[in-house]
Write a structure and sequence with these properties.
It is a single chain. The longest helix is centred in the N-terminal third of the chain and has 26 residues, at 28-53. α9 (171-183) packs parallel to α10 (200-214) and α16 crosses α20. The chain has helices spanning 20-26, 28-53, 57-73, 79-91, 93-105, 110-122, 131-138, 144-154, 171-183, 200-214, 236-242, 310-321, 368-371, 398-409, 425-436, 452-468, 501-506, 519-531, 539-543, 547-556, and strands at residues 2-5, 9-12, 163-168, 188-193, 218-224, 246-250, 264-265, 268-272, 276-280, 297-299, 302-307, 384-390, 413-417, 440-446, 471-475, 478-480, 484-487, 491-495, 507-515, 534-536. It is globular, with a radius of gyration of 24 Å. It is built from 20 helices and 20 strands. Helices cover 42% and strands 18% of the residues. Strands 7, 12, 13, 14, 15, 17, 18, 19 and 20 form a nine-stranded mixed sheet that branches. Strands 3-11-9-8-4-5-6 form a seven-stranded mixed sheet, with helices on both faces. By secondary structure, the protein is an alpha/beta fold.
């Protein structure tokens, strides 16, 4: 093992991944990029060759494009995506049609799709739904019983009671709790993260993981393949294996064109002994705890679950882990964890949250960074919790459907924190409808973007949303990476699902839905405190926006479904 001296020792298994020119010239990124462009060049060459060889090419092209239009109109894809493909047909008809067929045929991931479908079928009844919980929910007016019925069609994700939920308003707060809980592990530790990068945060986690492996704890790490062209070396799973940690990479990036790469594992899950689970936006890299600064202050959130609902996250991890396993194993990992019986079951009516939520005006102003390091005390195990997953390879748009359900059922308010705002027609309509019927809809977005294209696209929605009565704010200190929704003091969602096409259509995602849990008051209070550090978007600020964002946002709308 190698250590690098900074202010304190940082455990590293490999040399830092080269970035910049050296990384581009000598890393795997160059091989993958050149290969993809070579494939595209061959397609373009074929297109040009046919164009010169066929005297009646224009007529053939017209007939072909009409056929593709008929196909497109009868396809079930999002209407905004259809408009994007129509743009391609108008500009590069044949090549556009080839690209469409390439994405629709899904060359390269049919085996993955079949495997995921089989795993979902095999585990559809792995976790049982307590009928008493559904009976209590049916007596209320929350609509959670209806939503739970829909979620159960998409996978095995029951609604639970007797689950303690603690909310963390920052990556730093989650990190501290995560280290403490890891030290208590006795049986197994499962980590599934979109991004892992060597540094202080991962080094501290790795130290504990190595100790736990030595104690006989089953430790598994699963990370997305994009880490191998951005953060980690190609042999990192082998380096982890030398320490006794089992590791896998989801969807390795290979030098071949395939739609398989469009589907990434964007989840952030940590499960310990089936008793404790973490979920939220925080990856295992130093910017997420503001150890390093990339886009100003990094605002992120997470939740920790203790109790029955942890089993759903255990199942989610095992489903992804077992994709390439010949003999999947789910037991004994899904056995009943410790439960929390210190609070009686709540009635299912929308009678308000257990504790009041303060408005922004009632909260004393504090420095942005200090206020976001505070960790609320653990809540009692009241209310109902429903972890759920979203798979891009089935017919269900779970993440978007849950967000729309909250918007349509809201009575007083819906408050949202999201890093991106690239909306399809359904979600845009739901947000506008909520605002126009009098619901207080507030959205907090980054003040400093990580991707200027996505930032410009978000701004392209501002005018229409504000005209409908939506209140939009930008976080002055830096970048908002949180994926949080609260509504009416009784509902909240914390997870990995952004309000953009990639999360809603192309990523494996997960989130925690909460109804009348104590921590909802903490989540809403954090929203109000974050609001104090935001600038308000108004018609005047939109009119005075930089021309770059105005022009670029409108142009990028052509390609929004692909971003």
């Amino acid at each position: 093992m190698n250590y690098q001296d900074t202010k304190e020792k940082i455990l590293r298994l490999a040399k830092p991944v080269r970035k910049g020119v050296g990384y581009i010239l000598f890393g795997r990124f160059l091989i993958v990029t050149v290969s993809i462009f070579l494939h595209l060049f061959l397609l373009l060459a074929l297109y040009l060759w046919l164009r010169g060889a066929m005297p009646y090419f224009s007529l053939v092209q017209l007939i072909f494009c009409i056929a593709m239009m008929v196909y497109l109109f009868n396809n079930d894809m999002d209407p905004m995506a259809k408009l994007t493909w129509m743009f391609f047909f108008c500009t590069i008809p044949i090549l556009g049609a080839v690209l469409l067929l390439f994405t629709q045929v899904n060359l390269g991931h049919r085996a993955l799709q079949a495997r995921v479908a089989q795993i979902n079928k095999d585990t559809m009844h792995a976790l049982s739904q307590d009928p008493d919980i559904i009976a209590r929910l049916e007596k209320g007016r929350s609509g959670l019983d209806d939503l739970a019925t829909f979620i159960r069609r998409t996978g095995c994700y029951p609604v639970y009671d007797k689950t303690q939920v603690t909310y963390f308003p920052s990556g730093e707060a989650k990190f501290e709790a995560l280290l403490e809980e890891l030290k208590k592990a006795e049986k197994f530790i499962f980590l599934e993260y979109f991004i892992i990068e060597e540094g202080y945060m991962w080094g501290k986690v790795l130290e504990i993981l190595e100790e736990k492996v030595a104690e006989g704890v089953d430790v598994r790490v699963l990370y997305d393949g994009f880490c191998e062209i951005s953060n980690l070396p190609l042999n990192y799973t082998k380096l982890l294996a030398k320490t006794g940690i089992k590791a896998k990479v989801f969807a390795k990036i290979m030098p071949i064109v395939s739609s398989h790469y469009n589907y990434r594992d964007h989840r952030k899950i940590l499960v310990i002994d089936g008793k404790v689970a973490f979920n939220g936006g925080v990856n295992l890299a130093d910017e997420y705890i503001n150890r390093i600064e990339r886009f100003g202050h990094w605002k992120d959130t997470a939740v920790m679950l203790k109790g029955k609902a942890v089993k759903s996250f255990t199942l989610m991890f095992l489903q992804m882990w077992n994709i390439d396993e010949a003999k999947p194993v789910y037991e004994p990992y899904l056995s009943d964890p410790e439960t929390y019986d210190d609070a009686p079951a709540l009635p299912a009516s929308d009678g308000g949250s257990p504790s009041p939520v303060k408005s922004a005006e009632d909260i004393p102003e504090k420095p942005a960074k200090a206020s976001h390091r505070e960790t609320p005390p653990p809540s009692r195990a009241r209310g109902y919790v429903m972890p759920y997953a979203d798979c891009p390879l089935d017919e269900y748009k779970v993440g978007e459907t849950v967000y729309i359900d909250v918007l349509y059922r809201a009575n007083d308010y819906v408050h949202i924190m999201t890093p991106y705002l690239i909306l399809d027609g359904e979600l845009l309509t739901a947000i506008i409808y909520a605002a126009e019927r009098g619901v207080d809809v507030k959205i907090i977005l980054p003040g400093i973007p990580d991707k200027k294209g996505s930032y410009a696209l978000a701004k392209a929605h501002y005018k229409r949303l504000i005209e409908a009565g939506v209140h939009i704010y930008e976080y002055n200190p830096g970048f908002v990476h949180a994926k949080v929704v609260t509504s009416d003091n009784v509902k909240a969602i914390v997870g990995t699902i952004n309000l953009d096409y990639r999360s809603l259509y192309h990523h494996f995602e997960c989130a925690t839905y909460m109804y009348r849990t104590d921590c909802i008051a903490d989540i809403e209070q954090d929203f109000q405190m974050t609001l104090r550090n935001c600038r308000t978007v108004t018609p005047e600020t939109i009119a005075n926006e930089k021309m770059y964002y105005k022009v670029w946002g409108r142009l990028l709308k052509f390609f929004a479904p692909l971003m």
